[in-house]
């Protein structure tokens, strides 16, 4: 039986970021953005929402994903796992909005989905009226809009707060330790850059995916209405459904580590190519090494090494990190 996400409150919006940084699990912030003009426009109807958005539109081309009606909004792979069950087209944002309105009253409408679109680029001026006090985090704001959709469970490395501005979203969340129970698909061939669960949440095949029952037993669920927000910590898996004829959310992504550290995923990919192929006893040895140097790092662990001689075991500023990345590149050539 799934559990509901813990609700939370922020007494002073100016300290929102401090609250988010203090949470290690998802939190619902009901009504956090009720005051946003875009939410108020959506509450007046889908046509009013489209009119509101178009005042910021500068005829930018955006990626639109078209999903046939038979797929019931699920963005996924094709049957042969050689590609995907949707097509991508570049369209003017205003045209995509008009197409969504046209589908509003169609009984068997294909799904149209515009996702992960930079608001600063697509709708300049929008954030002046619809924003969160996250300046210190230098958060990236993106919009996601479409009719009915089902986005397969995936994780994101940045911390994330999603704000529903129109329609409704049903979100199912899993802690990072549930990865083995989610039956994750390919790492190199993905619908949108991140690996996804292969399980169809609308009709799970427990014969093919028996451990998914355990994932569901540990899942958190939330139903979000216009004005509600949900904080999703880094690396938490989340499956998101847009359940109305027109759904929109705005999300903010940020990381509390320097950007020059690069992509953590690259470490996993390289380990798959080098360590995963080793005999079991060697893999266990490398597991001990990673635990020592990365996962179980203790204060003062390298005090026996003079500070000037610690190299990548010491403090890493941007210049030092780039120096050792160059050192690593040379080793990768061997």
UniProtKB/TrEMBL annotation:
InterPro entries listed in its UniProt record: Cupin_8 (IPR041667), JmjC_dom (IPR003347), RmlC-like_jellyroll (IPR014710)
Alphabetized Gene3D superfamilies for the sequence: Jelly Rolls
SMART domains the UniProt entry points to: JmjC (SM00558)
Residue ranges annotated for the JmjC domain, each copy included: 112-269
A Pfam family recorded for this sequence: Cupin_8
UniProt superkingdom: Bacteria
Name of the protein described by the UniProt record: Cupin-like domain-containing protein
């Amino acid at each position: 039986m799934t559990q509901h996400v813990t609700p939370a409150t922020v007494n002073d919006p100016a300290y929102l970021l401090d609250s988010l940084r203090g949470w290690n699990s998802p939190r619902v912030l009901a009504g956090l953005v009720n005051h946003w003009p875009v939410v108020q426009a959506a509450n007046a109807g889908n046509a009013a929402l489209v009119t509101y958005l178009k005042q910021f539109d500068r005829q930018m081309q955006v990626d639109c994903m078209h999903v046939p009606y038979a797929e019931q909004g699920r963005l996924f792979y094709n049957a042969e796992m050689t590609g995907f069950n949707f097509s991508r087209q570049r369209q003017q944002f205003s045209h995509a909005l008009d197409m969504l309105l046209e589908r509003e009253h169609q009984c068997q409408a294909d799904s149209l989905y515009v996702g992960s679109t930079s608001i600063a680029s697509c709708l300049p001026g929008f954030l002046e009226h619809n924003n969160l006090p996250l300046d210190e985090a230098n958060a990236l704001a993106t919009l996601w809009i479409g009719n009915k959709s089902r986005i397969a469970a995936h994780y994101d490395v940045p911390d994330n707060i999603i704000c529903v501005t129109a329609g409704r979203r049903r979100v199912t969340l899993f802690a990072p330790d549930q990865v083995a129970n989610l039956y994750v698909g390919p790492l190199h061939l993905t619908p949108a850059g991140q690996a996804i669960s292969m399980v169809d949440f609308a009709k799970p095949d427990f014969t093919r995916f028996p451990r998914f029952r355990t994932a569901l037993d540990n899942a958190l669920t939330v139903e979000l209405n216009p004005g509600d927000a949900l904080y999703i910590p880094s690396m938490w898996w989340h499956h998101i459904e847009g359940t109305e004829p027109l759904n929109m959310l705005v999300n903010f992504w940020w990381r509390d580590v320097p950007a020059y550290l690069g992509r953590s995923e690259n470490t996993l990919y390289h380990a798959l190519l080098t360590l995963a192929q080793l005999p079991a006893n060697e893999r266990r040895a490398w597991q001990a090494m990673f635990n020592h140097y990365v996962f179980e790092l203790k204060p003062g662990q390298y005090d026996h090494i003079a500070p000037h001689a610690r190299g990548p075991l010491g403090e890493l500023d941007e210049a030092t990190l780039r120096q050792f990345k160059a050192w690593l590149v040379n080793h990768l050539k061997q």
